[in-house]
Amino acid sequence: MHITVIAGGIGGAKFLQGVRAHARTIGAEVTAIINVGDDVTMHGLRICPDLDSVMYTLGGGNDVERGWGRAKETFVVKEELNAYGMAPEWFGLGDRDIATHLTRTVMLNAGYPLSAVTEALCRRWQPGVRMIPATDERMETHVALRRDEAEAAGVDVSTAPAESEQVVVHFQEWWVRLRGRVDAQRFIFIGADQAKPAPGTLEAIAGADIVLLAPSNPIVSIAPVFAVPGMRDALRSTPAPVVGVSPIIGGSPVRGMADRCLASVGIECSATGVGALYGARATDGLLTGWLVDPVDAQTTVPGVTVRDTPLWMTDDEATASMVRAALSLGGV
Amino acid sequence: MHITVIAGGIGGAKFLQGVRAHARTIGAEVTAIINVGDDVTMHGLRICPDLDSVMYTLGGGNDVERGWGRAKETFVVKEELNAYGMAPEWFGLGDRDIATHLTRTVMLNAGYPLSAVTEALCRRWQPGVRMIPATDERMETHVALRRDEAEAAGVDVSTAPAESEQVVVHFQEWWVRLRGRVDAQRFIFIGADQAKPAPGTLEAIAGADIVLLAPSNPIVSIAPVFAVPGMRDALRSTPAPVVGVSPIIGGSPVRGMADRCLASVGIECSATGVGALYGARATDGLLTGWLVDPVDAQTTVPGVTVRDTPLWMTDDEATASMVRAALSLGGV
Fold it and tell me: Whose CB has fewer CB within 10 Å in chain B, the N or C terminal residue?
């Protein structure tokens, strides 16, 4: 059996731990198609936060307490960069993490595509699932903010056209520096129009026995994957069932800032809201099944089979149990 | 008064500490023209060992015990790079050092010339002397080795033409990895033909009251500076006296591997040998004065005034005293 998962970030990494655990018990192979919209170049280093979160977590090298980055991390390089006055100071670049970015940057500059680089990095981490970035092209999520609100929050608005009432910042600046406190007007996936699905992604979707949408942020983790032309069509045309797992439990995100992201695009922060956003395959959407938490058992999404199971990813076993329920919902 | 110093490496850095100390007592300004032949790009980072040695030493950030690199250095990034199998493993890249290289690389990639980058880095370190790289162009010292000897020492000779009896390696590979144990056939300053003196260097030589050649390695620290077209002419045409300080005391280098470098080009490892290599300005060479240690008091270089003074740079005061003797020898 082949399970393909669309995922991003920390939530995706935790979910994939459960997928891997369950896949091992049933002898299934797992392909994870990972969001690249969070990617950013800082200090000349190509940083892929979602790929790294998944790789470190599945490879046992993540910091469980802090929730991101490497275990036993040190921050000597960052401290020194600050001493040189190298902006931006707000991004948490650990020394161990920097080695990953250096390795990636050297390989990218040598001409290897991101998917090949990811494969090379995974030879060290042995994540136990096949990890593929959504695209090899550079595609980065940016956030449009109201100019006055951005300026009040300390954003450099000098480069925005004088007549514009909006400024656009990289997702990382909005997420990490501003902590999402300035309302997002919209999200823009810069480079998406030129992006192509990375080698292996379309095949992994077409050839899957089931496709799972991880309980990742629907707006900034899952949507950018489908912003890659061809990816959405692949999901709609695969013979496999497509089961989504709700990232919202009882009206709140399991983790992160999905509530702020959903609000900015006018989607209700609920299992129903996100289910409707993904939509039913029968009506131009993606889902055949939608897995929600028991507190959201009343959820309905027209054309989609909704089932409930506990969605708190407290440990691998709990998460594997979610995955079992998702597979069951997909009829596999 | 303006003192201009041609220098490279650790020996140059120590000498410049003495120059700075003496310049402070007499109210002189110091310009240091620094060798870039040791520069190398590793892991995508532009590394300038001589510029950094001088900058860290004069800025009080050098490791006095180890003799190179930063004080309180850690090696987390390097350890991680090794875990990724990133070659070369033999180069000691510390975390603090890496921040310097990252800052430099970002600025170079943004289009700033090395001289401007050096000035920017020095705003942090405040070395107290004006530091200028010999050239803004990329010019790197390479070493030709006998193919059979190189292969026996573990050098990858597969990229050398099959018919060639020599292979060429970067100076750092010969110096750090091979520790100079394979005989150098010759030194090649790759890029020298396209190099131009960095802004300010020719003016600093022409406008100096005295030019000093630091007791740095004559073959791989001083010679590459003069390999930059125009630099030698500037030294020969300046109205200022040019006083060299011998890096050899009693037939041995003060530090480093000048003996191996000199042997490879057939120069005797002695104050006389190096003095003759630099030569007298009157006879197509560079020197008006040559400062040697008392053990080498019998040294003669035709056309050059030779004087002796203790040349062991045991502390800033001893070195400042050498500088005072050099200035006196130059008649300033």
Answer: N
